Amino acid sequence: MKTAARAFFVMSIAFYTSAHALAQDVEQRSTVLHLSQTAERSVVRDVLRVELRAEETGADARSVQAAINRRMAAALDRARQVQGVRLETGSYNVGEEHPQNGPSRWRGSQSMILTGKDSDSVLKLAGALQSDGLSTSSLAYDTAPETVRGAEEDLTAEALAALDHRAAAIADRMHLAVLRYRDLRVGNAETGGRPVPRFAAMAMAAPVAEPGEAIVRVTIEAELLLASPRP
C-alpha cells in the first residue's frame, strides 16, 4: 500500500510539473495585448451647492466678531426652517487691515453652505439670505454619489463587452485568437469636472441656475494573451 501511494504521489508531481511547464511554454509563445476601454454616459447634475458669506468691517475685532456671530445665527435660524436643505458653516476669518490713506480697521467673514437636491428651495433660500445681507461667493451643481453608483454597474458591463469585442477583432486581424485574460483592472465610476460660477458682489434677488449634465465614466484596463488558433 505504501509503495502504491508513493508511486501515485510521484506520478501526480510529474503530471503537475509537466502541465505547469506546458502552460509556461504556451504563455511564452503568446502575444500580450494591452487594452484600455472606457464607457460613459451623461447624467443630470442633481445636487446644488451654494456658499454665502457674512462679512463685516469695524474699528475693533470684538465688534466685528459680535456682528458676524449675530448675522450668522439669524441666517442659520432662517435656513433651518427650510426642509430638504443641508446646512454647514465654513471658514471664519477676522484680520486687521492697514490702508495707506486711512486708519486701520478690522475685517471679518464667515461662510455658510447650503446643499440640496431641491434646487428651487435652495435658490429661494439663497435669495432670502442675500436680502438679509449675506453675499454669494459660489454656486455650482454636482452629481450625487448615489447617482454615480447607480450608473457604475451598467457602465462596467458595457466596457467589458466592448473590451471583449475589441480584443477579438484585434486578434482576428493578427490571425490569432484570444487565449485568456492575464490581468484586469476595473476603475470606479468617475465624473468629469464641473464649472463653478462665482459672484463678486451681493445680489438681492434669488440666483438663477441651470444644472446641466455631467459625464459619468468607467475605465477598464486589461492584459490579454493572444495565441495561434488551435487546429
Descriptive report:
The protein is 38% helix and 37% strand. The protein is an alpha+beta fold and 231 residues long. It has 2 domains: 31-46 and 143-231, Translation Initiation Factor IF3, CATH 3.30.110; 49-141, Alpha-Beta Plaits (2-Layer Sandwich).
Rg, nearest Å: 31 Å
Task: Categorize the overall geometry.
Answer: elongated
CATH structural class of the largest domain: Alpha Beta
Structural class: alpha+beta
Order of helices and strands: HEEHEEHEHEEE
Strand residue content: 35-45%
Uncertain spans:
14-23, 195-203
Q: Give the biggest sheet.
A: 4 strands, antiparallel
**How many runs of DSSP E, i.e. beta strands?**
8
Helical content stands at 25-40%
Number of helical runs? 4
Mean pLDDT, rounded to whole units? 85
| Number of separate structural domains | 2
Distance between the termini: 43 Å
| CATH architecture descriptor text of the largest domain | 2-Layer Sandwich
What is the CATH third-level topology name of the largest domain?
A: Translation Initiation Factor IF3
In brief:
The chain is an alpha+beta fold and 231 residues long. It is 38% helix and 37% strand.
